[in-house]
Specification:
With about 325 residues, the chain is of the alpha/beta class. The chain contains eleven helices and 14 strands. The protein binds adenosine-5'-triphosphate (ATP).
């Protein structure tokens, strides 16, 4: 494969469940070494897209290529280059942690000595060394998710597809999962990461596609996506009391969309533009108002989703 050839290429993918169009003319290209994020609320079509890529679902229309070759249900040579971490934990209850990882790895690697090395590395990677002999039922939700990941990555795939791997995990396991993905990517692995957590996608992903109702509503880097909208930063200033006339002056600043005082904090939503924070503080100073803490938060991917679709990302989460 030429180094700049897309690892994943999708053109005009359509998947219907009866009347419902779950994926609606979706196209994307993922380059080698990217962490590509599919971000969207529940039901936006992320899992369906993944399952189409993996040929676990038949689809109505479109083309899917992996590593420059058409992906078919029988493309076993391509499938062995992919590691899948499904949304639902899929491990064998009767096997221990080590036996589980080994049995998934054995689907691709026959040599026992090599497999032992890979299984050791995968267990180390997710930090389950102390739990090697445990059966899944004895593991917490977070540890189970880590086992799910070890099973998906042990054979060292070039492309890893992770479908919401941090849903319902404790903060420690979440951090372990996220930093693990960063390490895999640093080693050159391409990753597709689906989530409805914008903070995770923003931290991990080099590019993001925001999905809604099976369609791509926007895609780009996090900065590019935020640059597409008119929403700017949220400025919060600890003011204690504030008179109505000064508040009105803040409201009349050119880039201010709304301003209100709530529990001693002045909260200002700005449109994108330069000097928003300085302008707000300038009005306070001119009117002799002293202030305490000042916080300026840039727009989030939720603001992007909200501005494009009129709904919050987590409405249905
Ligand atoms: N087997 C199925 N039969 C009918 N409708 C389905 C089926 N699977 C998914 N859907 C519907 O297709 C749409 C897309 O679902 P999908 O699971 O791909 O979304 P998602 O973004 O992955 O959401 P989630 O985070 O909940 O998994 C939803 O409206 C869902 O209800």
């Amino acid at each position: 494969m030429a180094s700049n050839e897309a690892v994943v290429r999708i053109r005009n993918l359509v998947k219907r469940y009866g009347e419902l169009v779950a994926v609606d003319h979706l196209s994307l290209d993922i380059a080698p070494g990217e962490v590509f994020g599919l971000l969207g609320p529940n039901g936006s079509g992320k899992t369906t897209t993944i399952n189409c890529i993996l040929q676990l679902l038949s689809y109505d229309h479109g083309e899917i290529e992996l590593f420059g070759q058409p992906m078919r249900p029988t493309s076993y040579q391509l499938k062995r280059r992919i590691g899948v971490v499904p949304q639902e934990v899929a491990v064998f209850d009767e096997l221990t942690v080590r036996e589980n990882v080994d049995s998934f790895c054995a689907l691709y690697v026959r040599d026992r000595a090599r497999r032992r090395e890979l299984v050791d590395a995968a267990i180390d990677f997710v930090g389950l060394q102390k739990f090697e002999d445990f059966r899944p039922k004895k593991l917490s939700g977070g540890l189970l998710r880590r086992l799910n990941i070890a099973c998906g990555i042990a054979h060292r795939p070039e492309l890893i597809i992770m479908d919401e791997p941090t849903v319902a995990v404790d903060p420690q396991s979440r951090e372990s999962i996220l930093s693990g993905i960063e390490r895999l990517n640093a080693e050159g692995t391409t990753v597709i990461y689906t989530s409805h957590y914008m903070e995770e996608v923003e931290r991990l992903c080099s590019r993001i596609m925001i999905m809604d109702h099976g369609r791509s509503v926007a895609s780009g880097t996090a900065d590019e996506l935020k640059g597409m909208i008119g929403t700017g930063e949220k400025v919060s200033v600890e003011v204690g009391e504030m008179d109505e006339a000064t508040l009105e002056r803040v409201r009349s600043l050119p880039h201010v969309r709304s301003a209100e005082v709530d529990a001693g904090m002045l909260r200002v939503q700005c449109a994108s533009g330069a000097h928003n924070l300085a302008d707000v503080l300038g009005v306070l100073a001119e009117n002799g108002l002293s202030y305490g803490r000042v916080l300026s938060e840039p727009p989030t991917l939720n603001d992007v989703f909200l501005e494009i679709t009129g709904r919050a990302l987590r409405d249905e989460a």
